[in-house]
């Protein structure tokens, strides 16, 4: 995934983000971090092609998207969503699908409407529908919202498994300790621009901070 965003926004000519460039390589997890309103969601909109206007290029190959807020058809069951995804992507994933249904304990509700699910179950369904696509890249936007501790651990293990299998993952999260432990590199967005990018050590050097953790670095930068 190769991203070069010169300017982008929601009203023509009015930029919300500018000069954001980064790459996600196969087999690595890149964490996108930054405060609320920094421009992370707008960047994701550029990657998914849902931004009203953008100057720049995004070369993403095949990707699957796990949105922050579940997106689904009200009058389709989980099983029908699965059938739709497999038909559109032309993949055979029965073994993988069954494994994920069991892992997330969704087997018994697969013939129910997703609209009737709890918030956590809806998020599990979004994760399942993305992972069964076996895409080259995963765009994961604040995936831990609404998940219980057990499912969070399961998701972390699945993301690590995807990395081992060669999938490139862009993880947007405000949970800094999780990003610190999981991610290989980082893209730090602040006020609509890329503040720093690279490994934790490269970011530490770039920002001239003595912070050991991402939390310490962010706190240091915020206090300047």
Automatic annotation (TrEMBL):
Q: What is this protein called?
A: ABC-type transporter ATP-binding protein EcsA
Q: Where is the ABC transporter domain?
A: 1-216
Gene this chain is encoded by: ecsA_4
InterPro entries in the cross-refs: AAA+_ATPase, ABC_transporter-like_ATP-bd, ABC_transporter-like_CS, ABC_Transporter_VariousFunc, P-loop_NTPase
| Organism lineage | Bacteria, Bacillati, Bacillota, Bacilli, Bacillales
Q: Which organism is it from?
A: Exiguobacterium aurantiacum
Which Pfam families does the annotation name?
ABC_tran
Annotated Gene Ontology MF terms? ATP binding; ATP hydrolysis activity
Q: What PROSITE patterns does the entry give?
A: ABC_TRANSPORTER_1, ABC_TRANSPORTER_2
Kindly state which keywords UniProt assigns to this record, in alphabetical order.
Answer: ATP-binding, Nucleotide-binding, Transport
